[in-house]
Specification:
single chain, 264 residues, 5-stranded mixed sheet, 6 helices, globular
Length: 264
């Protein structure tokens, strides 16, 4: 059987990947949207979610009458988001753009980068350009909310290069999907290289196989704080695991919150 292979870093959310993402990452599966809502309420105004995908975070916020737009580079993920929103009588502006090339018609009070999506931008120049674009798309006093995981804090070197089951379950039309993943880490460069294999079965027979390759670049707490400050942000604060408390050792996800300076 021919194996379909995606080679785009962070740009592989099409077809089977979209379908499985919607199944295994449903709205509300993480408490991040509720946490973002608390921070959004403190800085009233329009919201943008970058790399919004199919709306795992965006749609729950949209349900609460938040004026929110979404941006993603995958037209299929955006189509899925639009379809799910329309099914509930909801609508918003969705833009198909890369984050580092972002050019939108309005500014926002809050911009969100959820669940380590920023790590998908492995080119450091593009990462900084993304922060610069975000700064320019914020109103004075607006906030950036950006999540970052530190992958090697929750993995061990002995796990490098070992294929492991990631997800499995039933899809539509009586299809069963088995997803496995292998990762290797360059801890000096703070890079994670992963291969993700999707195997689809129907009536016990393998009918489709997809192999994705993806890289992520992770940042330490103070490294990312300095990068944010270099981009012009101020008042940087961290939160741990989507709770209203300072990030601490052992947290798997660190949320960075910072602000665009107010001109006086």
């Amino acid at each position: 059987m021919k194996i379909t292979k995606n080679i785009y870093n962070g740009d592989c959310y099409y077809g089977l990947v979209v379908e499985t993402y919607n199944k295994f990452h449903p709205q509300g599966n993480i408490n991040d949207a509720a946490f973002y809502k608390l921070l959004i309420d403190e800085v009233a105004g329009a919201v943008l979610e970058i790399m919004c995908g199919s709306g795992r975070v965006l749609i729950p916020l949209l349900r609460q009458n938040i004026d929110i737009d979404g941006l993603d580079c995958s037209n299929e993920m955006l189509a899925s988001c639009r379809e799910q929103a329309l099914a509930e009588g909801l609508s918003c502006n969705l833009y198909e753009q890369y984050a580092h090339e972002m050019e939108l018609p309005r500014k926002y009070k809050t911009i969100i980068f959820s669940y380590s999506s920023f790590a998908l931008i492995i080119d450091r120049n593009q990462a900084f350009e993304t922060l610069r674009k975000i700064y320019n798309h914020l109103e004075d006093g607006g906030q950036l909310i950006l999540d970052m995981a530190i992958a090697w804090l929750v993995t061990e070197k002995k796990d490098d290069g070992i294929w492991k089951l990631s997800r499995k379950g039933m899809l539509s039309d009586n299809r069963f999907v088995h997803i496995s993943r292998v990762a290797e880490y360059n801890r000096l460069e703070q890079l994670e290289y992963s291969q993700i294999k999707y195997e689809v079965y129907q009536d016990g027979k393998l009918i489709d196989t997809l192999l994705d390759e993806i890289q992520c670049r992770y940042y330490g707490k103070y490294e990312l704080q300095l990068l944010l400050e270099k981009a012009g942000f101020c008042g940087v604060r961290t939160y741990g695991d989507f709770q209203d408390k300072e990030a601490d050792n052992g947290n798997e996800i660190v949320t960075f919150r910072c602000f665009k300076k107010t001109n006086t």
